[in-house]
Amino acid sequence: MCQLCDITEESAKVDYKFNPAKGRREFILDSMAAAGGLTAAMSLPLDAFANMEMPEDEVVRIGYLPITDASALLVAHAMGFFEDEGLKAEKPTLIRGWSPLIEGFAAKKFNLVHFLKPIPIWMRYNNKFPVKITSWAHTNGSGLVVGKHTGVEKFEQLGGKQIAIPYWYSMHNIVLQMALKNAGLEPVIQDQTDPLKPNQVNLQIMPPPDMPPALAAKKIDAYIVAEPFNAAGEVLAGAKMLRFTGDVWKNHPCCVVCMHDEHVDKKKEWSQKVMNAVVRGALYAQEHKEEVAHMLSREGKKYLPMKAKVVLKAMTDYAPEHYADPDAIKHEDWGVGRIDFNPYPYPSATKFIIDELKDTLVAGNTNFLKDLDTDFVVKDLVNYEYVKNAMDKYQVWDKVPGVNPNNPTEREEVFVL
């Protein structure tokens, strides 16, 4: 069990704000707040931050969560790509959860972050906060793992089970619920002690560091989350991969890179240089996954709290023979990786997420979604110019997955259960 504790304790050690005097209980409470961060952030008065002034300098200030979703930003910093563009970049700041990262970005402490895709949707259209998506942070990079104690081999067997998710507003929740409904199951949100009908699956929020220990202790039956916590579950908790999300939705986005409107609209040269560095970071991560896994790990540059063997598995282990029981990779012909890095933010994926989010069960008020004009959001939320310029400049299109060489800026979404 000490290895499982290591997941949480090492996260605490790396966190720049962690105070050992607070002890484990306080850290767990902080982690719980982090996992439910987007729900908590719904109450943040972001309009109160709107008039705060950006620092006059043009230093790149990155805020990130310690997950592989942040790889492109972290690699760009580690490899000096920002400096290559003539920019100064501070050491990226590790943040525990989405809520404090949102607050830091809203307060203009950070000018470059990665957010779950629904976060900027909420910020811009529910709270009228001027945020722009400027690229994807990665593609794929998540999965649904089950405990060996469950005997589950397919989605249909998840009836009556308890499944943990990291946040309500996430690709994870969207894909999971689509898969459950396809299997004839009903997602519900209720107290874990309340009885479930045979066709019901109870969803609950849980901090990612707590997921592997909870699975090992049989407090939950499964969880769906970003890497490297699936790999940690496999290595440390005996979890079994039921299905990779990238094998359900081909080359799906999860986290996106975001910047402030005032930079995107008014500091065009600076914004272009930032995206040049990010795109180079994404390409380097795609082409050097083993090196990057070690670089990000705590044996490397310590951007992530996980050991190198866990991060390496999270970034590279996608061999069908390793995942035949259960059959977690049904579409080997898709040619996707466990995690990949195509930074172009395809409009079709944004449309898919918004449309499906409207039909996804979440806790809290979702009224702001009902009146969203999807086609308007696709054009208004995302800046496509800087990332396209960078991908053209560094000839990235034919080096990242999911690109149609005849029409590289458009694609068809492939979702197959």
From TrEMBL:
InterPro entries registered for this protein in UniProt: NrtA/CpmA_ABC-bd_dom
The UniProt record lists the keyword Transport: yes
Organism field: Thiomicrorhabdus immobilis
Source species, domain of life: Bacteria
The entry's keywords: Cell inner membrane, Cell membrane, Membrane, Transport
Keyword Metal-binding on entry: no
Name of the protein in its database record: ABC transporter substrate-binding protein
Cell compartments where the protein resides: Endomembrane system
Pfam family, one: NMT1_2
